[in-house]
Amino acid sequence: MKKPKKGLSWRELATNKVVDLFIVIAGITIAYQLNNLKESRDERVLEKFYFEGIAADLEKDIREYEDNLAEFTHDRKFAAGTLARMQKGIDVSDSVGIAVLNVVSTKTFEGHNNTFSTLMGSSGLSIIQDQGIRSMILDHYRLYASIERFEKENADLIARFHTHFTSVIDYGRVGQVLDREAANNAQSKNLLTLAVVQLQSGIWRYQESLEKARELRERILSSQGATSP
């Protein structure tokens, strides 16, 4: 005759409950870790996306910095040369028109910050793990404001150039001076002096921006295991 099956003791019940609890905890922990891994993987993909976008924007910025710097350097050199001749009492009727036209046709900076704007608008800066790169990104794009200030100051100077030189030279034929005396007077000298100083200020600002853009691009490419061409 079969013996009746014994009921579970309270110790066995407690043990089973503890085992069940551990199974539940283990399941939750594994799910949490898997979710963290997924989020971590998603963040790495997103970070890579942002890096690629910023690197592409930096390439465009760098080309624009270089082009504008070359023009500013040329224009400043020509204006300084014309001014030096004026200060020596040499007639600059043949060159002042070119110097003026160079100043009033100065290039402006377009800027390529679409990825950065998206990054900041989505609070995505925290996605970038490297704190050094985060700081470099902010430093580079802060310099946009410096260039904007230069362009505003330059626009004011260009307006003054137009006011004075419109009646002095013929913009259509820059080698032709309408008023030889006014082309060599004190006001013309003062305006060219301001232009030389202003262009030098722009050169310094662009050089700083170009340096930071190059460093940031190299840092980003290096973090991705790539190098610039």
Describe the structure.
It is a single chain. The protein is 75% helix and 3% strand. With 229 residues, the chain is mainly alpha-helical. It has one domain. The chain has a two-stranded antiparallel sheet. α1 (10-87) packs antiparallel against α3, α1 (10-87) runs antiparallel to α6 and α4 (131-165) packs antiparallel against α6.
Describe this protein with a few key phrases.
2 strands, elongated, single chain, 6 helices, mainly alpha, 229 residues, two-stranded antiparallel sheet
Task: Tell me briefly what this model is.
The chain is 75% helix and 3% strand. It has 229 residues and is mainly alpha-helical. A two-stranded antiparallel ribbon has the order 1-2.
Count of β-strands: 2
Mean pLDDT: 82
Count of spatially separate domains: 1
Residue stretches low in confidence (pLDDT < 50, at least 5 long) are 29-38
- Percent helix among the residues? over 70%
Global outline: elongated
How far do the termini sit from each other?
A: 89 Å
Give, in order, the helices and strands: HHHHEEHH
